[in-house]
Structures are given as C-alpha cells and as structure tokens.
Automatic annotation (TrEMBL):
Domain of life of the source: Eukaryota
SUPFAM superfamilies, per database record: GST C-terminal domain-like, Thioredoxin-like
Assembly and oligomerization: Homodimer.
Alphabetized GO MF terms: glutathione transferase activity
Full protein name: Uncharacterized protein
Residues in GST N-terminal domain copies: 6-87
PROSITE patterns, per the entry: GST_CTER, GST_NTER
Naturally occurring in which organism (per UniProt): Macrostomum lignano
Amino acid sequence: AMSSEAEWELWYWPLAGRGEFVRLMFEEAGVAYKEVNDPQPLTDKFKGQSKVGWPVFAVPMIKKGDFELGQTGTVCRYLGKQFGLFPASEADQFRADQLCTTVMDYIAEGRLAFHGKNHYETYYNQQEFTQPYIDYFIANRIPKFLPHFEATLRYNNVDKPESADSLYCFGNSLTYVDLCLLHVLRATESQFPDAWKANISSYPLLARFKQQMESRPRLKAYFASARCRPFEGNSMM
C-alpha cells in the first residue's frame, strides 16, 4: 500500500496517459508516491498562474519538496537514476536515452493520429476527419516501430537461450527504459487490439518481454490494484 505521507508527488490527470510511464517507475522501485489529479491545481499550475519554482511546461510532473520536474522521458531517466534502474556504462546510458526518446516519439505519433484536424481538441470532435490518420498509423507506423523495439531486445539478448526468463534492453538487469517500453507495448495492445494480434507473432522477443515484465511481482500487484488507472480509450492515452 502506498503511504499517505509520501514524499514524492505525481501531478497528472486521473487516467493512464503519459503519467503511466512515471507510475511504473515508482511502482517497480517500491517507492511511495501520491497523486495530484484534481483539475484545479493542475489547471492553476500550468495555465501561467503559477509563478513559484522552476517552470514546468506540462504534466506529468513530479514534485518532492521544492524540486519539480517535467517532460515524461526526462522524469523517467531521473527516477531511473534515483532508484538504481540505470545502465552501467556510459555508452548504454546514451543508448537508453535514445531508446526512451524513440518510445516517447512513438506514443506522441500515436496520440496525434487521433487528432488529425486539431492537435488540442478532443478526439470525439474530429473522429471522422482523423480516421485516415489512424488507419495510416496502424498500417505504416506500428510496423515501423515494433521491429525497431524487437531489434533492440535481440541485440542485447542474442546470446541468451530461447527459454531465458529475463529479457532486458540493456545488460542483465532492469533499467528505466524497460519500464518505458513495457508501457508503450501495453498502450499499443489496448488501443489497437486487432493490429496487436496481427503483428505480435512477428516479434517473439517483444511478446516474451511484455509477459515477463507484467509478471514481475510489484508490477503484477500494481496492474491488479485500484492505483492502476484505466486507459482513456483513444490516442494511446
């Protein structure tokens, strides 16, 4: 159970969205956090009314005391370093940065496909207009990103037997980018179940990786808990 006296705060809307990347960092590390989900403080903070502290552009934002930090990938890298979920070598640290950025590009593209007319209006006001963009993303972009993620796992696990029960993106231990990759795979499956079923058999390492990650005790407990927020149902969010 998460303590109500948590030092860490996650500021985000009460849905999976980009906040889920950050939740997975706290959950896997077993670090207590509390969420600020109420629209009023979120709106006040990010509509230019807040003049206090280091400027953060948008949620998700983490906060501990006076320290505030935004940008999903940056937050994940920071927490990865804080929680010991960080690659050992400098080369792998930058490669992990590359992969994390690609994961964030992928989910950003997926979101924009649902907002082809207006990036900032709700999907429900542009469903018919944006459907061709969604179809294009499914046909052309998912088959571009998934094999790249598969190749990343293959590179690091080439010497492991097929029965290996620990596939990681870097080295032989969990890093923050494993958690980022897990979430974007779950978001793909949730948002595009037919495309996921049609594609995933081509990517056996991704399928095994996702299953193994979802079976980690802390993550398994989290996914079964009320703390795990539902997907919004559009935009991979």
